[in-house]
Structures are given as structure tokens and as C-alpha cells.
Write a structure and sequence with these properties.
The protein folds into 2 domains: 2-153, 3-Layer(aba) Sandwich (Alpha/beta knot); 186-252, tRNA(m1g37)methyltransferase, domain 2 (Trp Operon Repressor, Chain A, Orthogonal Bundle), CATH 1.10.1270.20. It is 38% helix and 16% strand. It is built from 8 helices and 10 strands. A 5-stranded parallel sheet has the order 2-1-6-5-8. A 3-stranded mixed sheet has the order 3-4-7. The protein is elongated, with a radius of gyration of 23 Å. The relative contact order is 0.12. The protein binds adenine. The site of adenine (ADE) has 11 residues, from strand 5. The site of adenine has 11 residues, from strand 5. It comes from endosymbiont of Ridgeia piscesae. Specifically methylates guanosine-37 in various tRNAs. Belongs to the RNA methyltransferase TrmD family.
Length: 253
């Protein structure tokens, strides 16, 4: 899967290319990243990529011509490649979208904007998808593009080893993750839950699922709305409910 990113700050992507699981995947050729700087497609002395907004107001807007030229260079020879723009106005990017992108394996051109935004005609002419990584405003789309690529690339075949498998990730089954522990068994008066040392894989699996359900109920009940539960989850969920009811009644007494 190849990503082409249009950005006036290509150095920001050094970390993604050099570090961690994604850096390793890019170095192994399991995914590809190419960067295109609109500044390289300017023709004036100052290599201008932004200009004042029509209608007035604060901030600058990214100009059409250098962006369009960079997009065309990135798209060269691939007329059907999809193009996504990162912005707070986009649809919410989540684990399900990441999973679908990784499963399709289709190349993607990403536009990372700066300043107040990009000339709307770029969007009109080129953009197939617009993604937001959350309801907050970043100073540019680069971090959002890296978030998207990280979430997708780690799901590509062979990127995570068996020991790092994505199946157990938070959200992969629509729930938050369970707690994790490693050695030592006891530290600063805190103990690893006994069940994790029992060696009983079935009990451990059930405990983890119950913890995941409990955390999701406490921290992100919105994730449970409209989610289909398995019979086992239903049973564990009722146990959690009953226990929290007991706790409330105890508090009242
Ligand atoms: N650019 C600036 N803020 C953003 C956000 N929240 N998501 C995606 N792109 C952005």
C-alpha cells in the first residue's frame, strides 16, 4: 500500500519513517511513503504557497496552483488513486475506517493542509474523502496524516509479528482494552491479579473480556450503544451490573 502525502513540512514525517512499527514496515517495503512539497511546484522567487483569504479575515489560505501541481505529480500514472484531505471538517476517522483501508490495501494520496486551510476548489476538484482525527484543531494536517497512516499501516499483512497481533487491540472488537501486567509479581505493595498467574487460559480469557467490558461501561458507555453482544458477553455484563448494584446498595447502607 502506497501513501503519497502532500505537505509543506515534509521533515515532520522523519519520525514516522525512522521509528517504531511503522518505520520498520516502511523500511521493509511493506508500505510505501512518498512526500510531495507544494513549494517545489511554485514559480515565484519566494516560492509562495499561501495567500490572503478572499472576503478578509485572519490567517492565510493555501494557494490552488502549487497544491494542484503537487497532487498531479503524486497522481502521475494513477488516474484512479483516491485522495483524502485531513481536516476537522471531515468524517471521524476511527478503528473501523482504518481496518477497511488496510483490508482494501488501496493506495491513498493525503493532503496535509497548513494555515487556515486550502482553497476550496482543490477539494472540489480532487478530494474523495475528508477525515478528522478528533474534535480539536491541529496547526496542520501532518500529525493527522501520520495518525491515519500509523493506524492503517500497522494493520497491513505481516507488519505486526504474531507476538504483536492486532486482534487483541482496543476497539478491534468494539471494546476498550483490558489491563496488562508484567514482572515483577509484586511492586510497591501492588500485586498482579492471581488469575493471570493461574495458567488457566480459558479463565484468563474470560477475565480479560470481563475487564474490557467493565472498562468500556465505565469509561466509554457510548461504545456499547448498538453493539451486538455475544451470549458470553451478555452474561459477564450482567455479572458486572449485579456487582455494581451490590456496591451501590452497600454504599447506601
Ligand atoms: N487538521 C487540523 N486539525 C485536524 C483534525 N482534528 N483532524 C484532521 N486534520 C486536522
Amino acid at each position: 500500500m502506497r501513501f503519497d502525502v502532500i505537505s509543506v513540512m515534509p521533515q515532520m514525517f522523519d519520525a514516522l519513517q525512522q521509528q517504531g512499527v511503522v518505520g520498520r514496515a516502511l523500511q521493509r517495503g511493506q508500505a510505501e511513503l512518498r512526500l510531495w512539497n507544494p513549494r517545489d511546484y511554485t514559480s515565484d522567487l519566494h516560492r509562495t504557497v499561501d495567500d490572503r483569504p478572499y472576503g478578509g479575515g485572519p490567517g492565510m489560505v493555501m494557494k490552488y496552483e502549487p497544491l494542484q501541481a503537487a497532487i498531479e505529480a503524486a497522481r502521475s500514472g494513477r488516474p484512479d488513486v483516491k485522495l483524502a484531505y485531513l481536516s476537522p471538517q471531515g468524517q471521524r476517522f476511527d478503528q473501523q475506517v482504518a481496518t477497511e483501508m488496510a483490508a482494501s490495501g488501496e493506495d491513498l494520496i493525503l493532503i496535509a493542509g497548513r494555515y487556515e486551510g486550502i482553497d476550496e476548489r482543490i477539494i472540489e476538484r480532487n478530494v474523495d474523502q475528508e477525515w478528522s482525527i478528533g474534535d480539536y484543531v491541529l496547526s496542520g494536517g501532518e500529525l493527522a496524516a501520520m495518525v491515519l497512516m500509523d493506524a492503517v499501516i500497522r494493520l497491513l499483512p505481516g507488519v505486526l509479528g504474531a507476538a504483536e497481533s492486532a486482534e487483541q487491540d482496543s476497539f478491534m472488537d468494539g471494546l476498550l482494552d483490558c489491563p496488562h501486567y508484567t514482572r515483577p509479581e509484586q511492586i510497591d505493595g501492588m500485586q498482579v491479579p492471581k488469575i493471570l498467574q493461574s495458567g488457566n487460559h480459558e479463565l484468563i480469557r474470560r477475565w480479560r473480556l470481563k475487564q474490557a467490558l467493565e472498562r468500556t461501561l465505565q469509561r466509554r458507555p457510548d461504545l456499547l450503544q448498538g453493539r451486538r453482544m455475544t451470549a458470553e458477553e451478555e452474561k459477564l455484563f450482567n455479572e458486572i451490573r449485579a456487582a455494581s448494584g451490590d456496591a451501590e446498595r452497600e454504599q447506601e447502607q
